[in-house]
Amino acid sequence: MFVQRAMRQATKAQTILGASPSKYAAKVLSSSRLYSTPALAPLDASKLEINPSKNQKALQENSQLVFGKTFTDNMLTIEWEAGKGWGVPQIKEYGKLQLDPSAVVFHYAFECFEGMKAYKDKDGKTRLFRPDMNMKRFNRSAQRIALPSFEDEELTKLISEFLKVDDRWIPKGRGYSLYLRPTMIGTQESLGVGASNKAMIFVIASPVGPYFPSGFAAVNLLATSEKVRAWPGGTGDAKVGGNYAPCIKPQLDANKEGFQQNLWLFGPDHQVTEVGTMNCFVFWKNEKGEKELVTPELDGSILPGVTRDSILNLTRSWGEFKVSERRFTMSDLVKADKEGRIIEMFGAGTACIVCPIKKIHYDGHDIHVPLDPSDKTSQAGKLTKRINDSIMDIQYGDVEGPKGWSVVV
Amino acid sequence: MFVQRAMRQATKAQTILGASPSKYAAKVLSSSRLYSTPALAPLDASKLEINPSKNQKALQENSQLVFGKTFTDNMLTIEWEAGKGWGVPQIKEYGKLQLDPSAVVFHYAFECFEGMKAYKDKDGKTRLFRPDMNMKRFNRSAQRIALPSFEDEELTKLISEFLKVDDRWIPKGRGYSLYLRPTMIGTQESLGVGASNKAMIFVIASPVGPYFPSGFAAVNLLATSEKVRAWPGGTGDAKVGGNYAPCIKPQLDANKEGFQQNLWLFGPDHQVTEVGTMNCFVFWKNEKGEKELVTPELDGSILPGVTRDSILNLTRSWGEFKVSERRFTMSDLVKADKEGRIIEMFGAGTACIVCPIKKIHYDGHDIHVPLDPSDKTSQAGKLTKRINDSIMDIQYGDVEGPKGWSVVV
């Protein structure tokens, strides 16, 4: 009966948590008026306590930066408890988390995260790129795995404060940035399989250099259908930890055969879904002879990438070719390859912006994707490079993008 | 390029780890003979260091036990490192794990576990039930998410030692046991998405009482097809953390409507797969009029439960009715219900052994599953009760089961 008991407790907590912000506010109001039930504390940036580290670690040279390996002096943490809500946000010295071995994050993968970057512009100001998109997705990911929701804008404010405290860690120079990793974990100290009665948001930050330090290097992909990244009704559209570990074994298998990444397929018709941990884009002449940039539609198993959305927005604003979100299959790609219609292909994500693709191994054959033969220093097609430069221009504040895309903190 | 770099390192480590035990031994032999390459240390129970807690916590009354909430005085831990292998196993005071916030277990769900129990028999000896099955599955789960493999029997030996140290925590009495939770987590302190270069096994233990303290209580299920627990090419057949958190939201939704568990369906034909976190069994008269106990076949998306396997073995040994592992759908169940052919239904797992089902809500209708009307004290069919008693008899050493099922430690 422990499952039922845990469920009853959890449902009680969840009934309020699951509500939308406005319903939540209404509940808080009515409960404080009509009952003595204490209201759940919202995430409140004004409560922030800052006790920064007294030790300033040595910064690394820009050339020495490795993704996600070195972290700044401090971190941001906020704890949550069922029946109480969000606690006092803390900026404090970066250090180990102390968790009970029964904490549910270790057993049932109550964990979700975001990847975003802070950039230094030419005036020395710090900018975030579309942080509202990350915060909304973070909330959706949390709700998919029954972790608590939070007030989007408050977390952005807290991250901005964190960036002020660790400002010296934001590397200067185009291509350099401070990678931010907001993470939420369930910390209930009990093995009952139910909603976690405790949780924690932590944000850590790691200075990073360009994904391609010496010009684009295009990747070879192994089209993979035996292992499947995501499924309708699963969690492919949420940034939850459980989506990642199962992809490593197929990735290692692909690496052994000389491929850098998997091209994840789905279904008996081998729909193209994602590339490694990136969204997938094809630029081709479609069967009607139109130039078209296409990426799989958000059908529930595709991660709604911030870079993906930005590419769609930008290229649509150019109005130079058709831009589509729709399904396409390996047969479509094979046919386009045979008919010489593929122009470019690339993966897209926060880490690289775009990652050019040069070859796909599928069903015993290779599909060769054209690059730009006139470019002797880097392997990427012209559109791929243009998209990369356009997004970078906005991220570093050199060009003003759409409203709210580049936010000075 | 960080992905590629991480992959190269990981592949190097994985090449040896991925090998089968015999190949592994051959490699160790050849490497120590022909090269000066240090051999990777296997998991070795003879290296165990025991530094038990000096504080003996107060035991709880049997009636006060709640699943997975109270833990014993000590825990077993063993750390692993790429290029080195397994370290010194430690039995030490139960206490918090200290992990870097960048540890990959928090981000990419590098985590898998087992659930097993230690029982006190009438002579006061401690028994495990088919520990070899748990250890084999634990290894398979680890390999599915690129965590290191280990020597099965050595971990069983270490668990046996742990049980000796915390012997006073094993509750006496039929239905009572010490629940063991072997867990493996990836502890690499770097956000690169690749195989973890560090890992840890920990085993914690929690005294538990009977799942049904006052006679069986049958459950109501909501048949769920919108959210999907597992899929071909996924991880449904591995006991990895990522399988669990995504099931909580649907479970809470079911609870709100008055159902205790989800009946997980799969595919357009609504195949029956699992019940909550249990395997699913139906006892019916099949379309040919034969009495048949049926459970879904192990097609890659069904967890190969130890209780599941034990039930299949036992009932086949009885030779009284047909026992099948095969697919069946909700249409099959609906038809059988209409024709009055369903005799019993139950979930099966380590926590409960069997959990009787009394109702399934599907497609706007209820399927009512018969129980035993002659039994006024508990809600369960005759076969369900007989299976429960037969397995318990073996677990507590009252009846000698098949060779290797009940192991005195």
From TrEMBL, chains A, B:
Transferase keyword on record: yes
Domain of life from the UniProt record: Eukaryota
Sorted UniProt keywords: Amino-acid biosynthesis, Aminotransferase, Branched-chain amino acid biosynthesis, Pyridoxal phosphate, Transferase
InterPro entries: Aminotrans_IV (IPR001544), Aminotrans_IV_CS (IPR018300), Aminotransferase-like (IPR036038), B_amino_transII (IPR005786), BCAT-like_C (IPR043132), BCAT-like_N (IPR043131), BCAT_family (IPR033939)
Family matches, as Pfam families: Aminotran_4
Gene: BCAT1
List of residues that carry N6-(pyridoxal phosphate)lysine: K239
GO cellular component terms, A-Z: mitochondrion
EC number: 2.6.1.42
One function term, GO molecular function aspect: branched-chain-amino-acid transaminase activity
Organism: Linnemannia gamsii
CDD domains in the cross-refs: BCAT_beta_family (cd01557)
Cofactor section: pyridoxal 5'-phosphate
Reaction equation(s) it catalyzes: L-valine + 2-oxoglutarate = 3-methyl-2-oxobutanoate + L-glutamate; L-leucine + 2-oxoglutarate = 4-methyl-2-oxopentanoate + L-glutamate; L-isoleucine + 2-oxoglutarate = (S)-3-methyl-2-oxopentanoate + L-glutamate
GO biological process, one term: L-valine biosynthetic process
Family as reported in the entry's similarity comment: Belongs to the class-IV pyridoxal-phosphate-dependent aminotransferase family.
Protein name according to UniProt: Branched-chain-amino-acid aminotransferase
Amino-acid biosynthesis keyword on record: yes
